[in-house]
Amino acid sequence: MLGTLQNFIDRFERRPSGPPQYRTPAPVVTALGDRSSEDLGSEISLVIAVTGRRHLEWRPELALPRDVTSVLLVTGTGTVRGRDGAPVSGQEVAADLVSRGVSVRQVTVTGDPSHTSPEPYYLLPAQAPELAAYLGASDVPVCAVYGSVGGAGASTFAAALAGALADPDLGGDGRSLLVDSSGNGDLEFLLGLEDSTGHRMRDIAGTPVLTGPALRELPWAADVAVLTGSGAPPTRLDVGCPVVHDCGRWMCGSPSQAGIQVTRTVLVVPATVPGTLAARAVLEQLPGASVVLREMPRAELEWNDALTLMGRAPEADWRDDPYLVGETDRGEFTPTLSGAGTAGAAASRLVREVW
């Protein structure tokens, strides 16, 4: 509630305690299929060993370690056997992992030179170095942030999360990219960037790939580069730093169906009856999403009731902040842990929980 001691603590004492956090590399899960030879399996095992990542082989009864929140899935061109020997495709393996609350980045391999596919794949052993480079690359978080209903605060939390992912104390390297993928253009006003120089969506229209050096041409808010304005973002964002997509209110379809390739989806849920009921429906379509439950001022819904209606516990709670409305109305919201209020505290908790 407003004016509580906890609110004061969250507002002014939210720097992470203890040593800096380092993100654990995601393990590699293989599901190669019936047509994959033993030589191909050995080649992939060798590539994984070179990268230093853990190697897990998928099976229906696979129990993932508790610290695993994301995986690199390597699938073959054959059919994997599931329970009772039933055939399971690579996409179904990915769906199984997502249903366990794990984010998945998938790549296909084959040892057949005659194989053709519209999807990217690696031909082994010829492309073993390229596969090793792909698997060995650092795990850069790419997130999509949605609100379960309008007014949930998805844009505000997306900005706070971008700041948290850039923070060195939370495993960041001092920079991140915040992308307006909702088409609303709200980020300029939220962060007070209306008069800032730098490229907007319209200035890079038709650019298929945005690279790291191009971030210098964007407006910045603290350590966060911001890509906003009307239009669609580039298809690929090879910027070498965390990326947060502000997707606004959830409508329908997954981020990939909207053309956004992410390693994790975040759902901001206001602790109200409409917000939690809407979240329950959304989570049926996004079972692997991380939930941030936002305390609402003067809401009649108790915390435990919100958890019951939603059907699960959140990864982070976002406490009420009496200063937030004024800051966002004036364009004074700052995406840093020391300037983002209780949104920054919630983002810090989420980063520590899932990355």
UniProtKB/TrEMBL annotation:
Top-level taxonomic group: Bacteria
Protein name in UniProt: Uncharacterized protein
Annotated InterPro entries: P-loop_NTPase
Annotated organism of origin: Corynebacterium provencense
Record-linked SUPFAM superfamilies: P-loop containing nucleoside triphosphate hydrolases
